[in-house]
Specification:
The protein has two domains: 1-30, no CATH class; 33-62. 74% of the residues lie in helices and 0% in strands. The protein has three helices and no strands.
């Protein structure tokens, strides 16, 4: 019988966030212009993280 933590870890490893084509391409270096891709990723990530508290609040109040 699997432990809860093993199941949780397996689910996390298989989550689409860790297997997103954009992130996999960054990892594998398959972008034609990796510098531009990293700049784009940083800009997108900044927008997401700066709004994250609002998303979380909306989910809690929801």
């Amino acid at each position: 019988m699997k432990r809860f933590t093993d199941i949780l870890l397996e689910e996390a490893k298989n989550h689409r966030a860790l297997n997103h084509p954009y992130l996999l391409a960054l990892e594998n270096g398959t972008f034609g212009d990796p510098e531009a891709a990293l700049k784009d990723f940083a800009a997108q990530y900044l927008g997401y993280t700066s709004w994250f508290p609002r998303y979380l609040t909306a989910a809690i109040i929801g």
